[in-house]
Amino acid sequence: xxxxxxxxxxxxxxxxxxxxxxxxxxxxxxxxxxxxxxxxxxxxxxxxxxxxxxxxxxxxxxxxxxxxxxxxxxxxxxxxxxxxxxxxxxxxxxxxxxxxxxxxxxxxxxxxxxxxxxxxxxxxxxxxxxxxxxxxxxxxxxxxxxxxxxxxxxxxxxxxxxxxxxxxxxxxxxxxxxxxxxxxxxxxxxxxxxxxxxxxxxxxxxxxxxxx
Length: 212
What we know:
The protein has 1 helix and 14 strands, in the order βββββαβββββββββ. The chain has one helix at 76-91, and strands at residues 8-9, 20-23, 32-39, 45-52, 65-69, 95-98, 113-116, 125-133, 136-145, 151-156, 162-166, 174-180, 194-199, 205-208. The model has no long low-confidence stretch (mean pLDDT 89).
């Protein structure tokens, strides 16, 4: 079955030399938020509700509070949920990426989740399919296959749907452009479709777009 519909950006469509990876400094992340809102119980006067992360009171945690004003919120319960959500946004993202692509990026919008593969951080290997012959896929670059290692290949079709298939293993170290999938794709891959290849579950990384 088709895995999902999501844009893929990899070595095949990211502009060479434009990829940048940054890790977020944990000491700069907010772990407490004072949420300002117009409280309906105060005749829409301004109220402030403090919200803390779960580990805020630990002695070894650096205190880094911040403050936000959220127009449109009128209830303390709503302000609390929004504050908790903002704290999670600050806690869980550990890295950001930036890159340049061509016009195909126009279909994506801020908030969309995309899949990113790149050789620099060694998130699998990617590019565009050179040729297809049944279950044999010819890649645009040679990849290394080690015996007793489970590899997979994900193909993004022209409608942005993805399919992932296991790659037939090898008995000895092999460097090749031709890989064989164990089962056929539901939609036959075509020349120039994007692919991500690598060890199972390490083909790419999901990111949410915050700016275009």
